[in-house]
Amino acid sequence: MASDRKLEHLAKVKMFSxxxxxELARVSKAANVVSVKSGTEIVTAGTMGEEFYMILxxxxxxxxxxxxxxxxxxxxxxxxxxxxxxxxxxxxxxxxGDVTLVVIGQREFMGVLDETPEVARKLLVSMSARLREAxxxxxxx
Length: 141
Description:
single chain, alpha+beta, 4-stranded antiparallel beta sheet
């Protein structure tokens, strides 16, 4: 049951949207479900990131410079870039109540890419589309 739930939620992640069911199942196997208590700092701005997170239940607050800039709930995700580059976190995310998360570590994710190169190709296409979209928004503002 938990595996089906992870798969269902991961299928909604834009980065994984081009993956077929078999590929998505492989990503899901690399993921863990973790529960955190209210007030837990899930990620901290400026620290190096190596995990992707998706909220299964509960809510989390996104903070930048101490100010709440967004609220995340079930189906929302963050940290996808950390799967690829281990760069610094751009915001702090704090559990606003108890939260259940799907967590994928970079090491486990890289194992998926090594075992299933087609996933890597599809992710490159997806990331390229996101970069184009961001570039278009930046030019229009």
